[in-house]
Amino acid sequence: MAEPLTRRRATGSRHLVIFARLLRLGTGKKRLAADIGPLAALAFQRVALFTMIRTLSTDPRWRTWLAVTPPRGGPWPRHVARIAQPRGSLGHRMGEIARSLPPGPVLIVGSDIPGIRPAHIAAGFRVLGNHDAVFGPAVDGGYWLVGLKRYPRFIDPFSGVRWSTPHALADTLANLEGRRVGFLDTLDDVDDGVAWRRMKQRS
Fold it and tell me: pTM, whole model, 2 decimals?
């Protein structure tokens, strides 16, 4: 069972959070499923998520958390700490989880980024050393990574963001006006058939 947001163990100073939805036919990745079919979309979800967990969660430079919804279900890898996503919009869920973790910089990523590597995560934490926030821009106008320093106080940049649109990154940056913001490489998050076909062509 996932840990509730109010119960946290002390851990290291760097936190990587992977947002994940229970792998079940007909739930999640609805735009992708509409383009390539629900079975192919579910297969992609499964491979992408478990490849990401295997690639990123064993790196000793950060503590990996799996933020899951719904909180019950699975199976999930036992070696990764699980936390339950709260109810609400994506922005509310990310803000609440970022706010609740133990002290230290936090990076949040989705589970649909085939190109992500440990070097990207290490670069994100490095950029946060002299910035208030860091983003990994996505090809579609959103972002595949967001990182927040959270000190001396947490600044929630997710209010009013138009999620799943080309405006998501611009809206989030507008909430951080006047703050020091850094950027990583642009990657694809596979939300629809166009991105899925680009992925297939590269593989």
Answer: 0.89
Q: Which two tokens stand for residue 203?
A: 């593989």
Q: Which pLDDT does position 11 carry in this prediction?
A: 42
User: Cα Rg for the chain, rounded, in angstroms?
Assistant: 16
In the CATH hierarchy, which fold is given to the domain comprising 15-202?
Spore Coat Polysaccharide Biosynthesis Protein SpsA; Chain A (3.90.550)
Distance (Å, whole) CA 172 – CA 178: 13
Averaged pLDDT, groups of 10, the chain, 203 residues long:
44 85 79 87 90 94 93 80 93 94 94 93 96 95 94 88 94 96 93 84 78
Ramachandran angles phi, psi of 47, nearest 5°: -65, -45
In whole angstroms, give the CA distance from residue 79 to residue 24: 22
Residues making up the chain, counted from first to last:
203
Q: What is the distance, to the nearest Å, from the Cα of residue 94 to the centroid of all Cα atoms in its chain?
A: 8
Where are the domains positioned within the chain?
15-202
